[in-house]
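Summary of Year 1 activities. Much of the first year was spent building the evaluation harness for sequence design. The harness presents a backbone, in tokenized form, and records the residue chosen at every position. We chose the following record to illustrate the format because it has been used consistently in internal testing since the harness was completed.
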């Protein structure tokens, strides 16, 4: 099964909202009209868990993640292709 290129939480994001990701992989939301941020999705009222996180026990530039099928994987965020 192929991963959805645009997750549900992103496709239902209101037009005046954007999102960002902290260095440790946590998703936050930006209300561009009100100039405010929140950890909670503006429609669902819930935090978004992407399955990606950076941990101190991984080498610099690497993140732990999970595929949509639940398989554990590691992501090199500094690799040049």
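For this record, the design step produced the sequence shown next.
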């Amino acid at each position: 099964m192929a991963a959805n290129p645009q997750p549900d939480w992103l496709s239902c994001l209101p037009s005046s909202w954007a999102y960002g990701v902290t260095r440790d992989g946590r998703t936050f939301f930006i209300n561009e009209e009100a100039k405010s941020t929140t950890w909670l999705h503006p429609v669902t009222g819930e935090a978004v868990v992407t399955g990606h996180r950076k941990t101190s026990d991984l080498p610099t530039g690497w993140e732990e993640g999970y595929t949509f099928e639940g398989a554990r994987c590691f992501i090199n965020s500094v690799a040049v292709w």
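The beta strands are 17-21, 27-31, 36-38, 62-66, 72-76. Quantitative recovery figures across the full test set are reported in Table 2.
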